[in-house]
Protein 1
Amino acid sequence: MAEDNRAADRILVLPGGGPLDPELIEYLQGKGQVQVVEDVEEAAHVIGTQSVDLVVCPIQTFRELGEATAGSQAVRILEALDDSACIFDSNGSLLWGNSRVAHLPEEVLGRVTGICRDTFGGLVERGADEAKLRSRRFSVALSSNHFFELTLTPIRDPRSNRTQVAGVIHDATHARRLQQKFDAIDQAGRELVRLDAEQFAKLDVSRRLALLEEKIIRFTKDLMHFDNFAIRLVDRKTNKLELVLCSGLPRHAQELDIYVSTE
């Protein structure tokens, strides 16, 4: 048996199918709290859920235990992700998912199942080579105006020749809506400067300003969804914010004296 000589408070003993050595157990009990488990699965569970300082087991069991605990560590890592992580079979049936998967809209899982089946199901049936079984990325837009980014990676087990699909589902709603707003603002800016030159030239200064003000207010309400707002410019001599235009603000708010400061 392999033994670590360092002091330990909690010691896990895995006999590995062999008989327990009473003298060894007595010796270990003098070093710390001893827990005896029956098999590798139980040992991996203890290591994954409790603090263990020392593991004592037969040399030939180390590799099997290492593989089992690596799986437990992988699950803990996947549970810590901000995204939904899951495993599907090649037909799109969900085999496993971290806790975030339970909070996904049903429509998302339905779409992901279909994408997984349509993308990889036929390739697996035809025995496609590894080059074709590569990661794919997809965008999923829901009717509720929510957006998700999906990455699917097929994983083939060489021992069983079975293919499963690992998936990561990222909620991209905030980023997509922000990008849409930026695009709309950019388009609004283009429309502001795309005024008919001939028509604009026929207007006097006050009408030109009124036309610009009308467009700015409309775009601000439609794109930024602001009903009450003010646009002010800094007077460099006084650092006062001078009111240029506003919408929906009461008179006393328009007449406020506001100054900028470096503090």
Protein 2
Amino acid sequence: MKQHPELTRDQLARIEATLKRIRCGLGKFDVELSQEPTHFFCPEVRDAN
């Protein structure tokens, strides 16, 4: 990771930890979203059956 001269190592570590939490949260959201029925998010889509 390229260090910015104005940020301390502690600040960079906190930023990195925050980004990891965001990525983890987005990953969980993707899983939850993929389990929802398509018509819930796309009402214009009709089942082919």
Protein 3
Amino acid sequence: MEQVLILIDFIQEKCSIQKEDVKQILFLLMNKNCYIDFEFFSSNEFSIILRTYNTVKQEEVLLRILECSRNQLLTLHDQNKLNYFSEEKYSAQSLGKIVDNFYVLNDCFTSIKQICTESSEICRDQRVLIVQEILQVQNKEDYDPNQERLKTMLEFNKENIFKFSQIDENYEIISKLEVDDVEEFSNFKNLYQKLSKCERLKYLKLNLNYLQIEASDMMNLVQSLDNSKEIKNLILFLRSNKLQSDGIAILGLLISDLPDLEQLELYINQNQIQGEGLQEFASELANCSKLEKLTLDLSENQLESKAIAELFQMITKCQKLKELNFIANNGQYDPVSLFGITIFMSKLPLLTKITIDLSDSQLDQNCLLGFGEGISNCLSIQQLKLYLSGNYLSEKSILKLANDISKLKQLNNLTIYMRTNSLSLTGCKLLAKQLTKLSNLRFVFLFMEGGEIDQFACQKIGRILIKAKNMIDFYVSL
């Protein structure tokens, strides 16, 4: 059985590459036997992991990912090999191991290759050409027309994504809007005036980082969206502003006024938010009955663990939630609250994907014991990602966490970041043996650097992991 793993790190602040752009083109090209995953390291950094277990001749498909700027899609070229990016503007930090290659719909690939012959870029205006080619091959034998995620991507491409500068001329037809070019506060004031015209919005993404935004500005933004009741997907980047408790409470008013909201991403790290405001926000979040995906980045605020636990208690009322990404590093947590957080997650029956980032949060052995005990009750989890680097974790507590994770019988994808750990070689082996108890586990990524473990030891651990019944791929860094 052939395998492939390609890992590429993107830093959005440098190259303005968008996660959805990457998803679109990959889902359009890859067949149903391919696996695509995303790793989040912070609010503006992510990696793409691609795998396939088809047996395909290497010369059939050769893929290269080129620059993706604000008004461009990924560009695909018929190259003889995958190259490292030499120019800084591409911001590709690393390219992982290549065992084999990808399978692509040949007709679609030919079409894109022809477009690329004329230009090294695929503009958003040319996106419809790609979609048309995909639709033409929907009935071919090597294509799965019922693949739900692919259908979603096709629908996403049928409508243009507009930018800030295009609002005035297109406000009557805009249903998808991305604003990532508001660089000055004066432009932000213009933004909410223009947003009030957009009554057909269903997808809204606003990058408002580093703009000194306060509660009064958030109220203006909320009022500008009074006529946009159909929003299903809302993404707000509000990093390093001047938001306090009243600011996040106002955000609660915004989401409570969106009855069809299905996906919510809020990156409000590096503000001055405290527990009282978070509680008000959580009360409004509980009314989002259609919410399926929730991402919250609350890192580097002034929140106590009790407030976080109360937030999760309210999240349990979102009974349709399928994916939860929670980032709250550089905090302070106690064992009781961490246990409560995970117990509340276990009360979400449809929850299958969980990402928790508690890096650099002064977690000790007791905190991890409570966290692991609670996570073992989340029996519906299929994908689990834990970022616990920079804490005070003993070997005993790490092995107890592995034992708790081994109780998640539905788990098929596991990622653990636990750098600066105290694991011995014996401890690493015991950890790997615990994970082999998971009969459905297919992908494992362990980043546990900081101990005195050499490459030879990694190979030993790999030999243990590969014995797992359905294991397809794993990566160990110790």
Protein 4
Amino acid sequence: MSDRPAPDLPRGVPHTLLFATDLSARCDRAFDRAVALAEGWRAELFAVHALQASHAAAGADLPSWRRGPDPVQRAADRLHQDQFDASWPVSIVVAEGAPVEVILETAKARGADLIVTAISRDNGLERLLLGSTVDRLLKEATVPVLIVRQRPRMPYRRIVVATDVSEASRRALHRAVDFFPDQPLRVFHAYSAPHSALAVDPVTYRDAYGKAIAADLDAFLAASGLGATRIREVLVERGDPSVLIPDYLHTTEADLLVMGTSRKGRLLDLLVGSTARSVLEGVSCDALIVPDVEEVAAA
């Protein structure tokens, strides 16, 4: 039986980080952030690379003198070179298999509290893409996933938690508190007033609906047990989250967005549907995605 705390309980900062890399240059920022976080948290750090079976078997049928270096060892050597001057120890893991399976299996085997990864870049369109590996990680991971975009010049200081007052949002809020205990948080809630166009007085309806949403958020935050010292600002805005969230993050120069996922909550569609790309590809800062562990694990 595991001695790790239940998902609902405060767990403090992560003790084990897993940095997932495909050995491309796009992962450099994610590696630097993983090292900085591990050093700040005094956490164990693993760098994992998945070697596709076809690559691992390359040259196996050739005579011994025609074979190149062992692919697994070559990848491990590359990882060692990349982290040679890292300011914090990094343990190397290279395994054969599909990337998502290797990442998740390694995270479970090593007891990782956080997976750190990068994003893909479509050079032709000059835009950032989540990529199929990150998409699947967001759906299947049972620990938070940090998607790194920015160069880590300093620790996270301007952290925004996007909420819809769901259980998934509560988990995300508490993970933000656990991971960054010294940083005050900004809480942002974007909502839409359904069927307002059908109301006799749409303006009055939207005003009343907004007040009800604000009251729900106040109750949500009060139930969280977080004092005013932990929450710097609370915003409730009517509109499309995929528009409002990126704009708010850009305007306030936020460096980290925290969101929760749930198979039952509205944020599931936000994170794995078309709106997901509008939000997560629309923001320029890093994003910490917190899963509903019990629901994901039971799937």
